[in-house]
Design a protein that fits this description.
Layout (H helix, E strand, L loop, with lengths): L2 H26 L4 H8 L3 H8 L7 H11 L22
Length: about 90
């Protein structure tokens, strides 16, 4: 496998995991896409596109989403069952 192909595969896997986690935590908190978008300062259609894995996000957007959800930014990057230490923001 070519190095560029490997990087694209890893990036795609991270984007899918992020999309899954974003939707998971949003639903867990009983938020609509509109609620999350308002709290994070982004558009609802952007949230929809991110949750479907169509868009990559910046570190600033990861921070906005995690703050709006009350979770650590790391929680959006790892499989939920891997480490629950990342599921909340430390006090």
């Amino acid at each position: 496998m070519a190095r560029g192909s490997l990087h694209r595969d890893i990036g795609a896997a991270l984007r899918r995991q992020f999309a899954h986690n974003l939707r998971h935590f949003r639903r867990k908190r009983g938020m609509t896409q509109h609620d999350l978008a308002s709290a994070a300062g982004v558009g609802r259609t952007f949230v929809s596109q991110v949750e479907r894995g169509h868009f990559s996000v910046t570190l600033e957007t990861i921070g906005a989403f995690s703050a709006a959800l009350g979770i650590s930014p790391a929680a959006l990057m790892v499989p939920p069952a891997v480490d629950q230490r990342f599921s909340t923001v430390p006090a």
